[in-house]
């Protein structure tokens, strides 16, 4: 294993020094989108193999859905690649420029990060999105996808390499770890700091633990999404009902799905029935505190302490009564994962307090947490949602996959 991984690392480090111009990058991406269409039968066949394996393993239906590539999803993938091709090249852009009294002209210019390792769940579109974003931002990428998606990922990565080769660009810009062995992840985290500049782990608690235990490579964590929707006392009932329903149930398995609803104690009596009934009628299981139990006429299970830190990723929600906006902010900053949190209110002052004080990388007002997505932000696609404290935070697209350097020009100035 170590020989295989080191070779991948060496290849990546070497190719990361190559410069590819924007025109060629876009040519590669367009060719890739074309090849995905041309080879769709082989992609669907590989995907069926993965689905069969996952079904035999007893994977839940929402995870099978996440794994599946059908005609519609393939079109979505191709559209996303074409969008990325149309976006401005993020490399070599002058981000700032200024002149100093000492005679220096200083420019801050964007550069690729180098080599990026990405560990991600069994969602094959991530292979195409991440490969396209990393390549367009001038980085080499090492991909380690989820085990259930291995056959689909393999062909998606192979087709990217084919489009690189046919455009006469080094194929090693994209490398795929062709193994289900989790030891590969440990190796990336602990033994590849000479080859990998940053690792992006996309996943849940298990992966977090692993990363914390092993990593000596810098990390941009794309971890659990314990997202909240806070319904303030000044919320509009109709809006609160619609937004909360969408935030919880539109797609329950994504990291931007709301897991906990916080309700201002002054509106619980009036709001809890219409809002929670709509969720319950759509098969959502509700864990709530004692105060809610008193007013809610439907079925409610008693919430325990662990419910405030549980990412259900299913049709289950926890609901808590809070005293006011400050109480909601404290709850979110204690139990949240700095992913996405939203307030529903007509009161701009309260909204502003919430937006400024939650630690979340995406803070929202009157908006469904399900909008936590690079595509929805206009980034063409995303590597995922960074839950880091340090930047980049929130959706990671082209603009977040670059670093920078200072370029300084003078006419022979020397320092006094
Ligand atoms: N912030 C973001 O952008 C995103 C966050 N997520 C989060 O991911 C989770 C859902 O995805 P899920 O599939 O359950 O995630 P997992 O954490 O189970 O898996 C994600 C990836 O990590 C690998 N992995 C998991 N545990 C280990 C380990 N102990 N050692 C080595 N590799 C490991 C998996 O490999 P294997 O296939 O072998 O299990 C897989 O490649 C949720 O918590 C969700 O919020 C998901 C997408 C985006
Ligand atoms: N940000 C993406 C989803 C990313 C995500 O959470 O993926 P997953 O957990 O694999 O379903 C979206 O909103 O579609």
UniProtKB/TrEMBL annotation:
Principal location: cytoplasm
EC number: 1.2.1.41
CDD domains linked: ALDH_F18-19_ProA-GPR
EC class of the enzyme, as a word: oxidoreductase
An example molecular function term from Gene Ontology annotations: glutamate-5-semialdehyde dehydrogenase activity
A cellular component annotation (GO) from this entry: cytoplasm
Places the protein is found: Cytoplasm
Domain Aldehyde dehydrogenase: 102-281, 308-381
Pathway assigned in UniProt: Amino-acid biosynthesis; L-proline biosynthesis; L-glutamate 5-semialdehyde from L-glutamate: step 2/2
UniProt xrefs under PANTHER family: DELTA-1-PYRROLINE-5-CARBOXYLATE SYNTHASE (PTHR11063:SF8), GLUTAMATE SEMIALDEHYDE DEHYDROGENASE (PTHR11063)
NCBIfam families for this protein: PRK00197.1, proA
Job of this protein: Catalyzes the NADPH-dependent reduction of L-glutamate 5-phosphate into L-glutamate 5-semialdehyde and phosphate. The product spontaneously undergoes cyclization to form 1-pyrroline-5-carboxylate.
Protein's name in the database: Gamma-glutamyl phosphate reductase
Gene symbol of the encoding locus: proA
């Amino acid at each position: 294993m170590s020989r295989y991984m080191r070779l991948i690392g060496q290849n990546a480090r070497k190719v990361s020094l190559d410069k590819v111009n924007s025109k060629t990058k876009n040519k590669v991406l367009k060719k890739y989108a074309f090849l995905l269409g041309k080879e769709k039968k082989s992609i669907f066949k590989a995907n069926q193999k993965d689905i069969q394996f996952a079904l035999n393993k007893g994977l839940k239906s929402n995870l099978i859905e996440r794994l599946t590539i059908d005609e519609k999803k393939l079109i979505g993938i191709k559209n996303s690649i074409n969008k990325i091709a149309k976006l401005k090249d993020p490399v070599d852009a002058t981000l700032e420029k200024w002149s100093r009294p000492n005679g220096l002209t200083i420019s801050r210019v964007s550069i690729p990060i180098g080599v990026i390792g990405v560990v991600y769940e069994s969602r094959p579109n991530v292979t195409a999105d991440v490969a396209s974003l990393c390549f367009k931002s001038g980085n080499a990428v090492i991909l380690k996808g989820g085990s259930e998606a291995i056959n689909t990922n393999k062909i998606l990565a192979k087709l990217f390499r084919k489009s690189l080769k046919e455009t006469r660009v080094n194929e090693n810009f994209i490398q795929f770890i062709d193994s289900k062995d989790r030891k590969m992840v440990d190796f990336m985290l602990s033994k590849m700091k000479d080859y990998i500049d940053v690792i992006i782990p996309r996943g849940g608690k298990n992966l977090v633990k692993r990363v914390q235990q092993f990593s000596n490579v810098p990390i941009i964590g794309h971890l659990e999404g314990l997202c909240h929707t806070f319904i303030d006392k000044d919320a509009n009932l109709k809006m609160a009902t619609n937004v909360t329903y969408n935030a919880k149930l539109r797609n329950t398995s994504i990291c931007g799905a709301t897991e906990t609803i916080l309700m201002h104690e002054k509106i619980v009596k009036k709001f809890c029935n219409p809002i929670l009934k709509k969720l319950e009628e759509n098969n959502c299981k509700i864990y709530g505190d004692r105060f809610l139990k008193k007013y809610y006429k439907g079925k409610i299970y008693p919430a325990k302490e662990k419910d405030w830190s549980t990412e259900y990723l299913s049709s289950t929600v926890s609901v808590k009564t809070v005293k006011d906006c400050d109480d909601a902010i404290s709850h979110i900053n204690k139990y949240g994962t700095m992913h996405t949190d939203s307030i529903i209110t007509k009161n701009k002052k309260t909204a502003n307090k919430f937006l400024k004080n939650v630690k979340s990388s995406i803070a929202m007002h009157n908006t469904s947490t399900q909008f936590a997505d690079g595509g929805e932000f206009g980034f063409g696609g995303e590597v995922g949602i960074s839950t880091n404290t340090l930047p980049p935070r929130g959706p990671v697209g082209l603009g977040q996959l670059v670093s920078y350097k200072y370029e300084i020009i003078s006419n022979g100035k020397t320092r006094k």
